[in-house]
Amino acid sequence: MLESGWRQGQPAHYRRELGLDTAELFAFIGATQIDKWNQLVAFESGDPDAAQRTFAERVAREIDARGTLDVLRHGVKDRGQLFRLAYFRPAHPLADDALVEYEKHRLTVTRQLYYSQKSPERSLDLVLFVNGFPVATAELKNPLTGQTSDATYLVPDGDGDEDGDPLTASALARGRHETLSYFAFTATPKAKTLHLFGTPRPVTGNPQPFHVYSMRQAIEEGFILDVLSSCVT
Fold it and tell me: Restriction endonuclease type I HsdR N-terminal domain location, by residue (predicted)?
C-alpha cells in the first residue's frame, strides 16, 4: 500500500473518544489551510494545543450530527471559518493549480489499531484513514488456515452490536454517529455487501457480485477518494 501513495499511520495518534487520527487531521489542515488555522489559534490566545483540542471536539460533534461522509464532503465551520476536510478530484482540472489541494491528502494505513474504550485489548488488523478519518477496515484473513470472510462478518467488539464492523459498533456504543459503511478486504465478498449490491443467481436466487475489485485496485489513492466523492451515500 505504501507504494500506492499511502503513508504509515501511528496507532498512538488515534483518539478513541473522538474516532479520529488527530495528528493526520492537523497535518492536512496545516498543509492546506494554514492561514485559517492561524486565525483559529489566535481565538485561543495563541495556544495551538487548545485550538487543536477544541477543533477536534467540534469535528467529532459534526460527525455525530451529520455523518463522516457529509463532513468530508462539505467541511466544518468554526469561528466563522469554513475548514475543508477533503479535496476531491475536480471534474475538469483545466487550471494549473486545480490539483494542488487534492494532491495534499493524507492517506494513511494503520496496523493493529486498538479502537475500543470499553475493551482496550480489541484491535483491527488494518484501518485506512483519509486526513485522519477512518474510512475502511481490513481484516487479514488467510483461507489456507481456515480464516474466511465469515470471521470478519461477526467480530465481537464488547462495546456494542457484534454484527458488522467493530469500529462502527464501538462508535455507536459511545453515542457516536454511525459513520461510513466500512469494508473488509478479504479473498471473498462479505455477506452484507452481496445482500445489498449483489445480483441474484439464475437458479438459486442467492446474491452474487456484479463486479469484483482486486485489492490492488481498491487501495489506489485516487480510487478511494473518488468513491468517497461520488459513490458512497
Answer: 103-147
